[in-house]
C-alpha cells in the first residue's frame, strides 16, 4: 500500500498559503512509512537535533518523575509503618490500662474493707470462722448409737 502526497495543486493544497518547499513525499517501504532519500537529506538534519534534545528532555523528566514517585512511595511506606507501630503501642497501652484499672479496683475494694473493719472485728471474724470449722469437722452428722 503506497501513501503519497504530491505537489500538484489539488483543492486542499490551494487553500494553504504558498510555501517555499513542496510537501513531503512519503512512501511505504514495507517496514512502515519512510521519507524518500532526497527529503531525508533536505529536512531531517535540522529536525534531528531538536528532536533529540526534546527526547532527552522528556527522558530526564520521566526519570525525575519516577524518582519523585519512588520517594513518595517510600514516605508513604514509612508513614504506614509508623502508623502500625503507633497502633500496636496504643493497643498495648489499652491492655496495660485495663490491667492497671482492674488492679486499682481490687486494691480499692480491699482497702475499703480494711478501713471499715477494724482489727478487733477482724480477729473476732477469724475466731468465729475457726470455731465453725472446728464444730463442723468434729461433729458427726449421724447420732452415735447407744
TrEMBL record:
Residues 57-80 are annotated as: Disordered. This is Uncharacterized protein. It comes from the Eukaryota. It comes from Hucho hucho.
Amino acid at each position: 500500500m503506497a501513501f503519497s502526497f504530491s505537489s500538484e495543486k489539488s483543492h486542499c493544497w490551494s487553500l494553504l498559503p504558498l510555501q517555499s518547499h513542496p510537501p513531503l513525499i512519503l512512501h511505504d517501504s514495507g517496514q512502515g512509512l519512510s521519507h524518500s532519500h532526497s527529503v531525508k537529506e533536505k529536512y531531517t538534519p535540522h529536525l534531528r537535533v531538536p528532536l533529540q534534545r526534546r527526547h532527552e528532555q522528556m527522558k530526564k523528566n520521566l526519570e525525575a518523575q519516577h524518582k519523585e514517585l519512588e520517594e513518595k512511595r517510600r514516605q508513604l511506606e514509612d508513614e504506614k509503618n509508623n502508623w502500625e507501630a503507633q497502633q500496636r503501642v496504643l493497643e498495648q497501652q489499652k491492655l496495660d490500662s485495663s490491667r492497671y484499672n482492674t488492679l486499682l479496683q481490687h486494691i480499692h475494694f480491699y482497702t475499703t474493707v480494711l478501713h471499715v473493719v477494724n482489727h478487733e472485728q477482724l480477729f473476732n471474724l477469724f475466731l468465729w470462722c475457726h470455731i465453725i470449722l472446728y464444730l463442723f469437722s468434729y461433729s458427726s452428722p449421724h447420732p452415735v448409737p447407744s
